[in-house]
Amino acid sequence: GQQVMQIPQYQHVQEGEDFTTYCNSSTTLSNIQWYKQRPGGHPVFLIQLVKSGEVKKQKRLTFQFGEAKKNSSLHITATQTTDVGTYFCAHQRHSGGGADGLTFGKGTHLIIQP
Amino acid sequence: DTAVSQTPKYLVTQMGNDKSIKCEQNLGHDTMYWYKQDSKKFLKIMFSYNNKELIINETVPNRFSPKSPDKAHLNLHINSLELGDSAVYFCASSPGRAIDTQYFGPGTRLTVL
Prior knowledge:
A: mainly beta, 5-stranded antiparallel β-sheet, B: mainly beta, 7-stranded mixed β-sheet, 4-stranded antiparallel β-sheet, globular
C-alpha cells in the first residue's frame, strides 16, 4: 500500500508559537486526510484534501496539499494549550466501489509549554 | 448520543484467553473498521466491513475474527491472546463512499498479562 511518512515525530513549542507537521509520500496520493487525537482520546477528523495545490483554513489551522499531490502540511498559528495532542495525516485507499481503510502516518505529537 | 460506541473501554486479561470487543454505530453508515494503535501511537487498519461483507484483512493473524451481525455492529473476537496483542483497538465507521471521513469510537484498551 501507499506509505505516508510524517515528520517531526515530536514537537515542543511555547504557547503562542507556530507549529507545522509534514506528510510525504513517494507516490501520488488521491487524497489526504488529517486527524487530531487528544491524549487519552480517539482520532477526530479535521479536514480532507483532494485537489492539487489545495489550501484550506480552519481558524488558526492551515492545511495544504502539494502540487504533485505527494506531500501535505498542517500549520497551526499561535498555538494554544487546547492544541495539545497527536496530529495524523492519513490516506484513504479506494477500490472503485466502497471505502477502504486509512493508511496513517506515524503522527506528530505536539507538546505545548505554557 | 454517542455516534460510535465500543465496549468494554478497558480489558485486562491473561495470555491464552479469548475475548471480544463490541462496536456499534448509530450513524447509518455502510462501512465499519477496526484499527489497532500500538504503544507508540501508530494506527494500523485491521479490517473493513461494508454492508456486512469483509473488504480488507491487513495481514492480521487469524486469531482475530471480526463479525458483523448487521451493518450497525462490528465485533472483534480474539482467540489465544498474546502479550503483543496489548494495544488500543478503535472501531470506526464511514458512509461508504470512495473517499470518506471516518468516525472513531472511544477505543478499547486491551492489556494482556
